[in-house]
């Protein structure tokens, strides 16, 4: 049976092992320092955080992890949810776990007006999944200023 479990501090080693795999895959366009990945996990398991972390499970087996966050977007006139990261272990890809994850989150968040994610176009399997779920590419680029 598939289910989501909120991340806890006790999951640190298991989650960070998957995070490292994610950040060494073609899903990521540039390296991220380990201290940032550690901070992200700490924020996801803190009590006062806008970042939510989940471990995806099938029965007693961990199949992946995800981070999500909510924010307000004026162009939408309401809440948006950003799928920050979704990672499935290699042996569990293509088995419907990604679809089930999106279904669970979308059902649990009826107040959200827009769901958003980032994907590299070269990650064809992910793009195919997201398009099948109804996602479409935006017509503008993003810019950032990091502090």
Overall description:
This protein is of the alpha+beta class and 147 residues long. The chain has a single domain, classed as Aminopeptidase (3-Layer(aba) Sandwich), CATH 3.40.630.30. Helix content is 30%, strand content 29%. The chain has 4 helices and 5 strands; from the N terminus they run E-H-H-E-E-E-H-E-H. The chain has helices at residues 12-22, 34-45, 97-108, 124-132; strands at residues 2-6, 51-58, 61-73, 78-88, 112-117. It has a 5-stranded mixed β-sheet, with helices on both faces.
- Strand order across the biggest sheet? 1-2-3-4-5
What would the principal axes of the Cα set say about the shape?
A: globular
Task: Identify the CATH homologous superfamily.
Answer: Gcn5-related N-acetyltransferase (GNAT)
- Termini separation: 42 Å
How many helices? The count is 4
Rg calc: 15 Å
Overall average residue pLDDT:
95
CATH-derived topology: Aminopeptidase
The number of E-state strands comes to: 5
For the biggest sheet, the summary is:
5 strands, mixed
CATH architecture identity: 3-Layer(aba) Sandwich
Task: State the name of the first-level CATH class.
Answer: Alpha Beta
Unreliable residue stretches:
none
Q: By helix and strand content, what is the structural category?
A: alpha+beta
Number of structural units classed as domains: 1
Helix content: 25-40%
Keywords: Acyltransferase, Transferase
Protein name: GNAT family N-acetyltransferase
Domain N-acetyltransferase: 6-147
Pfam families: Acetyltransf_1 (PF00583)
């Amino acid at each position: 049976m598939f289910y989501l479990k909120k991340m806890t501090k006790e999951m640190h080693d298991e989650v960070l092992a998957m995070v490292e795999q994610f950040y060494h895959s073609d899903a990521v366009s540039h390296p991220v320092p380990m201290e940032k990945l550690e901070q992200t996990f700490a924020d996801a398991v803190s009590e006062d955080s806008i970042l939510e972390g989940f471990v995806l499970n099938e029965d007693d087996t961990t199949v992946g992890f995800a981070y999500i966050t909510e924010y307000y977007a004026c162009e939408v006139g309401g809440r948006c949810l950003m799928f920050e990261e979704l990672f499935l272990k290699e042996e569990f890809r293509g088995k419907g776990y990604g679809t089930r994850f999106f279904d669970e989150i979308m059902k649990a968040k009826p107040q959200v007006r827009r769901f958003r994610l980032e994907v590299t176009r070269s990650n064809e399997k992910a793009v195919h999944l997201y398009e099948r779920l109804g996602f479409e590419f935006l017509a503008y680029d993003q810019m950032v200023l990091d502090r």
